[in-house]
C-alpha cells in the first residue's frame, strides 16, 4: 500500500513578510500550491526565486471561499493541508500529521489547535486559548461552504479529529494591519447578511458590538492579556459594529 500524499495549499496576497517561512514549514508536503491574488509586493518574486517546485497560480480575489475552492481544484493528492501565510507548521506538528495520515483508519478532517501571536507577542487568553481550525482534510470532503465569504468552513465534514501539537499563528505585527483586516472582513460579512435579507437594526448593531467586547475581555479573559487583550477585544467589537455599518450601506 502506498503512503498517502499531501498537497499543501496557500491563498495569498502581498505576503512578502510571511511567504518564505510559511512555505519552508510545508516543504515536507508532496505538492505545494499557491494561489495568489495578483500581489503587488515581492511575494511572487520570492516564490519563483526560492521555491521552484511550488505550483503558482493567480486569480482575482472575490472572496475567501471562492479562492480556497479554486486552490483545491489544482490539488492532485488525497490529503489537503491548508495553511494561511501567517501560520507555521512546527516540526512536532509535522511529525504528528505524517503519523496520523498513515494510520489504517483516519478521520476525514482534523482541527489544528493554534498558538496566537499579536504584535510579536504570544497571546494566552482573549479567546485564543480555545482557538482551532480545520487545516488537514481528505480531498473527498474538500469543498468550502459557498454561503460564507469569510470565516469559511468545509461544507460536508462530520466529527473531525483534533491533533495535539500546535500550529503557530503570527497574526499581525501592528494594530494598523489588524484594523485593515477587520474592515475587509466586516465588508464581506455584511454582503453575506444582505444576501440573506437580514435587516439593519441600530440596537442590534450596538448590542452585538458591546457584547463582543464584554465576551472577549471578561468572559474569555482578555483582561489577563493586558493591553493586547484590550486591543483585541476592541477590534472584536469594531468588527460587529462595522459589519452592520456596511450592511446599512447595502440597503441605502
From TrEMBL:
<dbReference type="InterPro" id="IPR029044">
    <property type="entry name" value="Nucleotide-diphossugar_trans"/>
</dbReference>
<feature type="domain" description="Glycosyltransferase 2-like">
    <location>
        <begin position="7"/>
        <end position="115"/>
    </location>
</feature>
<comment type="similarity">
    <text>Belongs to the glycosyltransferase 2 family. WaaE/KdtX subfamily.</text>
</comment>
<protein>
    <submittedName>
        <fullName>Glycosyltransferase family 2 protein</fullName>
    </submittedName>
</protein>
<dbReference type="InterPro" id="IPR001173">
    <property type="entry name" value="Glyco_trans_2-like"/>
</dbReference>
<dbReference type="Pfam" id="PF00535">
    <property type="entry name" value="Glycos_transf_2"/>
</dbReference>
